[in-house]
Amino acid sequence: MLGDGKSVVLSFDDGPAPLAALESILQTLEENEIKAEFYVVGEEVRRYPGAASMIVAQGHDIQNHSWSHANLATETKPNVRWELEQTQDIIRESTGVTPTKIRPPYGSGGFRGNLDPELVEVAEQLSLTIVTWDIDTEDWKAPQGLGPRKISNIESQFAQQPRRQLFNVLMHVQAGTARDLPSFISQLREWGFAIAEP
């Protein structure tokens, strides 16, 4: 079986808005007793501090996804620092939690073998670990969500990494994903995956 003895961590980028999608995702996670990680955009946290607090209050990890969803690999070092520092500050102010990880938007400058030196330096100074993902659900592509076409692509991504024991699965805070999340969780369990805490 695809997931025999293997685990997944569920992660969501680009929150905390839209709020209806976030609330639906949080409810599904709670019903399934799953803890996930949320990589949030600083300027959205500034607009919706209560939504960021809700993520933390429900026991999920909240992490840094830059201030403005910038491509950090093409930014100057001062801009990279500003993007990450501002986001650290607003998350700390809104939730009382200091992020320990940065997932660069688009994964730019964050993948092994392709690390952006300025991002690496700034992340180190802010005690942030740079993370990416193992499985890209492409839930943001039309048609949005985690429908049958996406599922077969996800299945082949798992199959292409037979030695990996733990997979980080990338999704986004958006309506289509919120709608399809319950059936996606069932599918992961059907494949034999355990769902791990971040």
TrEMBL record:
Entry-linked Pfam families: Polysacc_deac_1 (PF01522)
CDD domains: CE4_NodB_like_6s_7s (cd10917)
Domain of life: Bacteria
A biological process from GO: carbohydrate metabolic process
InterPro entries: Glyco_hydro/deAcase_b/a-brl (IPR011330), NODB_dom (IPR002509), Polysacc_deacetylase_ArnD (IPR050248)
MF term (GO), any: hydrolase activity, acting on carbon-nitrogen (but not peptide) bonds
Occurrences of domain NodB homology (ranges): 6-196
Record protein name field: Peptidoglycan/xylan/chitin deacetylase, PgdA/CDA1 family
Organism: Nitrosospira briensis
